[in-house]
């Protein structure tokens, strides 16, 4: 298969970038999208050109590194797939493919397709965890958790933090990411205890990092390689309103985290 | 406190902490993107409620001059101070909705300084992506509507002798009990007998429908009132309520324009 690739090239964080066009052939439908870029990079290296920088790690759809916008869709056209799980058979021979980095103020481009996603780390650091005292491990079944709750927590916990939600959102909002973390912890009794403070602090960090707000457009849900539902955003909003009311009525402490 | 006390941490009034500060609560909750979005949703829902009842009230046009003129008189004169409370509340909702929506939008624009070379969409509806444009049209329309019927400054009723016009607000109607009241019926008929005015109203109603067809279901989501089971219901409710508002208002304009209501 042959393709014409338009790829964002930017030598460094402060440097000016531009779309560059490359033609590539000898690609088979069984190659993953990343393997296709590997082939391109080998050729570029042979020609003495700087290869295209992109993030990747597991190449099995679980780490969330392989972030790129492919023809205007985060992780390309396949539903529920990361870029490394996207195969070239999803394209037609001779297609033009536009490859761009995630675009958000909170995700500055480091080089070519690589962006700095540490904004997500800072959001998690501001509440995306459960405080537990160390000590003897409790008995496994001492805390009854209904299967439905465990399932819901698992649905949200699938989030691999790739950033596709924020990249796909017309407002560059990372609300689906925050909702997944909050929904995952809040579905379990261990996480419930701190949920009220968690929603406030994580949203505060989300806003401070420069992400936009949610207008319920739903592009994030379509982009998410783990198909996390915007239902979790409704849940986040519910918990946020509950937290505001609780804090106003009960004068609940601001602290917690 | 005794002046001679040398206590290091003397007893006295309660010391203030951050948790005791109401302003801190406002800053924490109402200044965040979620808090402001919730306010946009609440004010939007109140505006929808108003627009819905406004439309139902206007349907009295079909019940004849006496019915709508009596209703209008009741709203304006029998409610006393209530009408000013309602007007103030509406104005407040309108301004809060508008300012917060525009403020959030400016933040969202800043959140993506460099756009994509290749635009793509997986499931976004056109209505959801044009809330700002449709909202601004609705906002301008509301001002026009007020100038037209509340202040009577857009258009007048041509006098029967062909010379000059009568101001909308000077139209009088004699109730069966002999009381003279404002003739709202004649005013509305005069308005929608004018094609360009009818056209403006019809077009703006369509824009309002687009704003609300996303807005109502979006408000359900923003207020956390949906889950996977009821999201479809919220969507249907949104289109249904928006449709009912627009259908009712359309009926009045078209009935007059077409000459069925005179
Ligand atoms: C001054 C004119 C208006 C402007 C500029 C405006 C603008 C907007 C914008 C930009 C949004 C999306 C907010 C966001 O998601 O960030 C919105 C939402 C909404 N608007 Fe308006 N609007 C206006 C008037 C109205 C009116 C008159 C109504 C009701 C009849 C209304 C009902 C709603 C509703 C229900 C929402 C949904 C709230 C949500 O997404 O949770 N708006 N408006
Ligand atoms: S490389 Fe790990 S998810 Fe794609």
Largest sheet of chain B: 2 strands, antiparallel
What is the overall number of helices of chain B?
A: 9
The helix-strand sequence of chain B is HHHHHHEEEEHHH
The ordered string of helix (H) and strand (E) elements of chain A is EEHEEEEEHHHHHHHH
The CATH topology label of the largest domain in chain A is Fumarate Reductase Iron-sulfur Protein, Chain B, domain 2
Count of DSSP-assigned helices of chain A: 9
How many structural domains are formed by the residues of chain A? 2
Low-pLDDT residue intervals, each spanning 5 or more residues of chain A: none
Question: For the largest beta sheet of chain A, what order do the strands appear in spatially?
Answer: 2-1-5-3-4
- What name does CATH use for the topology of chain B? 3 helical TM bundles of succinate and fumarate reductases
Structural class of chain A: alpha+beta
In CATH's first tier, which class of chain B applies?
Mainly Alpha
What is the CATH superfamily label of the largest domain in chain A?
Answer: Alpha-helical ferredoxin
> Greatest contact pair?
A-B, 59 and 50 residues
Shape of chain A: elongated
Kindly estimate the percentage of residues of chain B that lie in beta strands according to DSSP: under 5%
The CATH architecture term of the largest domain in chain A is: Orthogonal Bundle
Topology:
The complex is a heterodimer of chains A (257) and B (262).
Chain A: E1 3-9, E2 18-24, H1 33-46, E3 69-70, E4 73-74, E5 96-100, E6 109-111, E7 114-115, H2 118-125, H3 147-157, H4 164-168, H5 175-186, H6 189-192, H7 195-208, H8 219-223, H9 231-249
Parallel strand pairs in A: 1-5
Antiparallel strand pairs in A: 1-2, 3-4, 3-5, 6-7
Chain B: H1 22-30, H2 33-58, H3 65-78, H4 81-110, H5 126-129, H6 131-150, E1 157-158, E2 165-166, E3 172-174, E4 180-182, H7 184-192, H8 195-222, H9 231-257
Antiparallel strand pairs in B: 1-2, 3-4
Helix pairs in contact in B: 2-4, 2-8, 2-9, 4-6, 6-8, 8-9
The complex binds protoporphyrin IX containing FE and FE2/S2 (inorganic) cluster.
FE2/S2 (inorganic) cluster (FES) binds next to loops of chain A.
């Amino acid at each position: 298969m042959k393709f014409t690739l338009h790829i964002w090239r930017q030598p460094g964080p402060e440097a000016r970038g531009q779309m560059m066009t490359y033609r590539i052939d000898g690609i088979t439908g069984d190659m993953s999208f990343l393997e296709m870029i590997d082939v391109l990079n080998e050729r570029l290296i042979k020609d003495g050109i700087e290869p295209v920088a992109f993030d990747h790690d597991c190449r099995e759809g679980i780490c969330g590194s392989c972030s790129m916008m492919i023809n205007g869709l985060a992780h390309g056209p396949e539903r529920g797939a990361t870029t490394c799980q996207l195969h070239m058979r999803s394209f037609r021979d001779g297609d033009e493919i536009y490859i761009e980095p995630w675009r958000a103020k909170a995700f500055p481009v480091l080089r070519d397709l690589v962006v700095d996603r540490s904004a997500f780390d800072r959001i998690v650091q501001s509440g995306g965890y459960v405080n537990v005292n160390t000590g003897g491990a409790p008995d496994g079944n001492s805390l009854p958790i209904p299967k439905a709750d465990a399932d819901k927590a698992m649905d949200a916990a699938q989030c691999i933090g790739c950033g596709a939600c924020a990249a796909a959102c017309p407002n560059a909002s990372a609300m689906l990411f925050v909702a997944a973390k909050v929904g995952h912890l809040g579905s379990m009794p261990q996480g419930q205890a701190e949920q009220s403070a968690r929603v406030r602090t994580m949203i505060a960090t989300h806003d401070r990092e420069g992400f936009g707000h949610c207008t319920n457009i739903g592009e994030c849900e379509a982009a998410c390689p783990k198909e996390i539902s915007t239902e979790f955003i409704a849940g986040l909003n519910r918990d946020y309103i509950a937290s505001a009311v609780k804090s106003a009525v009960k004068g609940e402490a601001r602290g917690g985290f | 406190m005794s002046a001679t006390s040398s206590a290091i941490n003397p007893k006295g009034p309660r010391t203030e902490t951050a948790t005791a500060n109401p302003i801190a609560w406002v800053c924490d909750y109402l200044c965040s993107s979620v808090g402001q979005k919730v306010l946009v949703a609440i004010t939007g829902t109140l505006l929808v409620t108003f627009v819905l009842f406004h439309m139902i009230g206007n349907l009295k046009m079909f019940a004849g001059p006496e019915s709508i003129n009596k209703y209008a008189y009741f709203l304006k004169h029998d409610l006393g101070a209530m009408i000013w409370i309602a007007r103030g509340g509406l104005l407040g909702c309108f301004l809060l909705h508008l300012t917060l929506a525009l403020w959030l939008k400016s933040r969202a624009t800043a959140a993506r300084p460099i756009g994509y070379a290749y635009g793509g969409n997986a499931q976004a509806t056109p209505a959801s992506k044009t809330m700002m444009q449709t909202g601004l049209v609705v906002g301008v329309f509301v001002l026009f509507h007020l100038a037209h019927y509340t202040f009577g400054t857009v258009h007048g009723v041509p006098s029967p002798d062909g010379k000059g016009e009568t101001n909308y607000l000077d139209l009088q109607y004699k109730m069966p009990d002999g009381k003279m009241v404002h003739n709202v019926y004649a005013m509305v008929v005069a308005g929608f007998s004018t094609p360009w005015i009818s056209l403006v109203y019809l077009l703006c109603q369509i824009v309002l429908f687009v704003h609300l067809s996303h807005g109502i279901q979006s408000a359900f989501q923003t207020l956390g009132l949906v889950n996977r089971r009821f999201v479809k219901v919220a969507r249907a409710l949104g289109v249904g309520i928006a449709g009912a508002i627009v259908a009712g208002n359309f009926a009045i304009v078209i009935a007059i324009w077409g000459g069925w209501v005179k």
